[in-house]
Amino acid sequence: MRVYLGIDDTDSHSGGCTTYVGYLLAREVLRRWGPGAFADFPRLVRLNPNVPFKTRGNAAVSLALNVPEGDLEELWKLAIDVVENNARREGKTDPGVAMAVGEIPWKARLLYKIALTQVVSKSAAQRAGLLIWGGRGIIGAVAAVGADLTKSTFELLAYRGGERRPIPPSLVKLIEAFTFPFTFHNLDGRRVLIEPKGPDPVYYGIRGITPQHLLYAKSILESHGYRPAGWVIYRTNQAVDAHIEDGVFFNEPTPYSYYKIRGIVIEAKRIRGRHVVGRLDNGLVFVAYRHLGKLATELEKCVMCDVVLYGGLKPREGGLYLYVERAHVLGRYVRVKTRCPYCGGSLESTGRGWRCRKCGTRFRHIQIKWLYDHSARRTLLPRPGEWRHLLKPPGLDAAIAGFFSPRDVEWIG
Fold it and tell me: Sorted alphabetically, which keywords does the UniProt record give (predicted)?
């Protein structure tokens, strides 16, 4: 019988990782029911990163399984036991488990789409039609069960048993030389992106579009002494723009939501030489952090540009500010210099009007004309080290991952 299990909110700022708890659960399911129980790779589902009660990356985990109908109660108890025994109950941590048997309820699928971009209430998760256990983590657990991963990528997550040994940029360059573009987002200059910096148990995480290339990258790391205590390949909605293609966007800006808006930049300036703060013609204030690199630099120069901005809305100083994560410049309005309609001469201001420098004709009013310059069209992204998990890298083919199943490769160890 097809069963979907979701878990979320098992980590804290001082340690733990929901993907690690998912790995432990998958390993136990594998031990009890064998590899045939897995209808798909374990799933890592990223949700709206702007919610105020997230821990770090706002990730939930789900498993799509085939188990005998008589084992459903055992599976449910196993999931709760694994979460209870491994969740870091500190601070805001409030773990949850959700399970769907047979078909996934449409309310769970809708909740996933909303959770990609909005703040979802616990009561909405309770009404989604799934069996649930726990606290606020049921929101992410239900969303992970309802996730549509028609377009997906993979991430191989390796876990450490002791201290995290730093991975040198030269070794990551070697991995890229053999696996790019089938792995991606490995380096930003000399900054290594495959290793986390926090106290979680992750040793490294390699993102890609085929599991075989992820396994090859792991073998290169192991040949240089980077041997993990355990590892798993997740299918994930990372790097496919799931929030933009599947997410629900409200017309009106709401706090802590992911938002997109089109407008004309009427003001943009650096604040104390650091971050760029600007305003659109509809009054919305946007912020582009300095560490975003070219994105902030280009937006500073983008006054009178017609833009579509994407980012998270956060309350500040009595209003909502849009913290930009990407931008599309559609064009730019360029003021055409008005000339004398009689002789074509240039005009100069007289304080009370204008006068033609050539023929001397005076004008009380002049018509201001604007041209729309399409050549300014471009996409602005932050530097790779500042990409959010859901952002799709340029040129990535999100359909390739759909051709693979857990029967094709070794996916856990």
Answer: ATP-binding, Cytoplasm, Ligase, Nucleotide-binding, tRNA processing
CA angle 387, 163, 198 (to 5 degrees): 30
CATH number for the region 250-338+365-382 comes to: 2.40.50.1010
CA 36, CA 38: separation in Å to the nearest integer?
Answer: 5
pLDDT digits (tens, 9 = 90+) for 114-135: 999 999 999 999 999 999 998 8
Do the beta carbons of residue 203 and residue 209 sit within 8 Å? Answer: no
pTM of the model: 0.91
Pairing of strands 191-192, 187-188: antiparallel
Name the residue with higher pLDDT: 268 or 56.
268
CATH architecture of 2-148: 2-Layer Sandwich (3.30)
Question: DSSP per residue over 112-159, as a string?
Answer: HHHHTTS---HHHHHTSSSEEEESTTHHHHHHHHT---SS-EEEEEEE
**Per CATH, which fold does 153-240+392-400 belong to?**
Glycinamide Ribonucleotide Synthetase; Chain A, domain 4 (3.90.600)
